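Work Package 4 report. The design task specified in the project plan requires that, given a folded chain encoded as structure tokens, an amino acid be chosen for each position. We show below one input record used in the internal validation round.
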């Protein structure tokens, strides 16, 4: 006999629950089918503590420990869609790996991701989690996102999952000509999601709307 809890457990992470989330994101304007499919396919309940698994397919950010959060699905979808729009490149730099949810949504849609996180305990768990999900096209780096990851640059796209007080100079330098960067910029409560495009001689900026992220920490 299946226990009540068992039934609920299945219900909360079932195909129908995921379909509801996808339908909601579509209603809110997400149109890229690859992105919507990824939101449906990636098992978000495996990225949060078991105690929160039943809430994994709600469109909200949730705590993942160490004072950090897993991003809201709508925001992940919006950022991924903006990043892939007109994207013909191969290499992505991701800043703020966290639990790796954004990484897992993006990984099958690009050739290679280089992902930087400053909290070693998070990175260790995330490495294992992505391996368990058979995701192999991601290289991880324990380091400061303000510095980027020069070794593998320049990058065709850069995606930043924490809010910067200003545009990080070194990330702009590591963006390839024709490349695009998606980054939340501004103080808590007034952050804007910015799309930066690198043209031959200059950068173009566009706001994609207001967002709420944890800060991109400055260590010194
Ligand atoms: N991408 C995650 C969300 C991560 S939350 C998801 O899909 O859910 C933001 C992450 O950025 C946190 O893990 C935090 O530790 C990391 N972070 C904050 N400041 C950083 C910095 N200066 N360098 C690298 N990572 C940073």
């Amino acid at each position: 006999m299946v226990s009540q809890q068992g039934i609920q457990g299945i219900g909360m992470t079932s195909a129908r629950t995921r379909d509801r989330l996808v339908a909601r994101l579509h209603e809110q304007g997400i149109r890229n089918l690859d992105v919507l499919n990824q939101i449906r396919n990636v098992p978000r309940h495996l990225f949060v503590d078991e105690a929160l698994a039943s809430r994994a397919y709600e469109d909200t950010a949730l705590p993942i420990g160490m004072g950090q959060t897993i991003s809201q699905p709508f925001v992940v979808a919006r950022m991924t869609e903006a990043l892939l729009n007109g994207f013909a490149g191969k290499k992505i730099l991701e800043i703020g790996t966290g639990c790796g949810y954004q990484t897992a949504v993006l990984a099958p849609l690009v050739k290679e991701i280089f992902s930087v996180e400053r909290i070693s305990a998070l990175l260790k768990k995330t490495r294992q989690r992505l391996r368990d999900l058979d995701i192999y096209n991601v290289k991880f780096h324990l380091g400061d996102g303000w510095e980027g990851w020069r070794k593998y640059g320049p990058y065709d796209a850069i995606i930043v999952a924490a809010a910067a007080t200003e545009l990080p100079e070194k990330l702009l330098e590591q963006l390839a000509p024709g490349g695009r960067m998606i980054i939340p910029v501004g103080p808590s409560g007034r952050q804007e999601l910015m799309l930066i495009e690198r043209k031959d001689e200059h950068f173009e900026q566009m706001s994609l709307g207001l967002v709420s992220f944890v800060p991109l920490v400055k260590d010194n």
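The first helix runs from residue 4 to 12. Validation will be extended to a larger panel in the next phase.
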